[in-house]
């Protein structure tokens, strides 16, 4: 459940979040980097030890199987993936090992993912004996991600911080305009539609699954896709489908905005897209959202209408 105190801690200081939404696989073996190099969109072979980098795994048609983070450790590569996909994705990867010296292991039972977010989140702020953590700026605030042994107590530096939950972190994510796989992206999404190519794709590495489609769209098509993900700011403090109810008075039920998922977007009478995520932003005192719109409506300041149930709410692309 959304916590205003937790939100304020992230915005002004730092808060710790148990990332139960994330799973962890490990890839070991002498060929681990060269093998993954041919599968993932990111340049795995040039990933320095101690770094964490965003990537994607695509189908040959250029659509997403999942997004993930690749983490370079001395004796292995960690793959941080959406928790619901971890087991199946690990099995899928293992089936792609032929003569390579590589082994895939599901580390979910051993490693817990924790994030520390806020202006005072500092990499290396934990005591000795705990990995220094990996920088995570993806949510618009400083962030550090840790992979902690579940059999050990939380490090004091993390235990001492205010703790908050995923609902609270999701508000920060939506404010930052960061898409989430299985919510704002799925198996039909091309990375360029979600706007993640600058973070997730290396355009200087060798071949990977789905590269031909990505190159064709970016070079021959000028990067033009039929729709793209944008941030939206809704006018006033009303939740679509809730009449004139003041959303600010219902901040403790922000998770209720999940029913906005799929709300249609219009320009005049023309349907131009749909909402994928929405939340009430305490800092902006309004509902903010992510949604896909037709490429003719991408410019900041473009007015659109959100249609949810019987309510029509004005919004603007930001």
Helices and strands, with pairings:
Layout: H1 4-12, E1 15-18, E2 22-28, H2 32-37, E3 52-58, E4 64-73, E5 76-82, H3 86-94, E6 103-106, E7 111-117, E8 134-135, E9 143-149, H4 156-159, H5 166-176, H6 191-194, H7 197-200, H8 211-220, E10 227-234, E11 264-267, E12 270-281, E13 286-294, E14 303-308, E15 311-317
Helix pairs in contact: 1-5
Overview of the molecule:
The structure is a single chain. The chain is an alpha+beta fold and 318 residues long. The chain contains 8 helices and 15 strands. Helix 1 crosses helix 5. The longest helix is centred in the middle third of the chain and has 11 residues. The radius of gyration is 20 Å and the shape is globular.
Short description:
The chain is an alpha+beta fold and 318 residues long. It contains eight helices and 15 strands.
């Amino acid at each position: 459940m959304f916590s205003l105190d937790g939100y304020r801690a992230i915005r002004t200081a730092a808060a710790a979040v148990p990332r139960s939404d994330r799973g962890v696989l490990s890839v070991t073996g002498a060929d681990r980097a060269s093998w993954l190099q041919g599968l993932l969109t990111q340049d795995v072979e040039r990933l320095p030890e101690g770094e964490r980098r965003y990537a994607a795994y695509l189908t040959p048609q250029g659509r997403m199987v999942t997004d993930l983070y690749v983490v370079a450790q001395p004796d292995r590569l960690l793959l941080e993936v959406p928790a619901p996909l971890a087991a199946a994705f690990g099995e899928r990867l293992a089936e792609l090992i032929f003569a390579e010296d590589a082994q895939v292991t599901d580390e979910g039972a051993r490693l817990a993912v924790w994030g520390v977010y806020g202006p005072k989140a500092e990499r290396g702020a934990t005591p000795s004996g705990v990995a220094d953590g990996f920088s995570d700026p993806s949510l618009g605030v400083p962030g550090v991600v840790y992979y902690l042994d579940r059999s050990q107590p939380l490090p004091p530096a993390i235990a001492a911080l205010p703790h908050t939950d995923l609902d609270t972190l999701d508000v920060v994510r939506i404010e930052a305009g960061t898409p989430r796989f299985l919510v704002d992206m799925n198996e039909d999404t091309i990375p360029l539609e979600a706007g993640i190519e600058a973070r997730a794709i290396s355009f200087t590495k060798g071949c990977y699954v789905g590269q031909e489609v990505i190159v064709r769209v970016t070079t021959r098509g000028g990067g033009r896709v039929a729709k793209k993900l944008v941030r939206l700011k809704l006018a006033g403090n009303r939740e679509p489908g809730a009449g004139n109810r003041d959303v600010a008075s219902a901040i403790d039920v922000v998770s209720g905005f999940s029913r906005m998922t799929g709300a249609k977007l219009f320009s005049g009478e023309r349907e131009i897209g749909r909402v994928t995520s929405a939340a009430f932003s305490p800092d902006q005192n309004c509902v903010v959202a992510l949604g896909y719109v037709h490429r003719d409506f991408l410019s900041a300041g473009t007015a659109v209408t959100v249609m949810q149930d019987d309510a029509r709410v004005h919004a603007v692309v930001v």
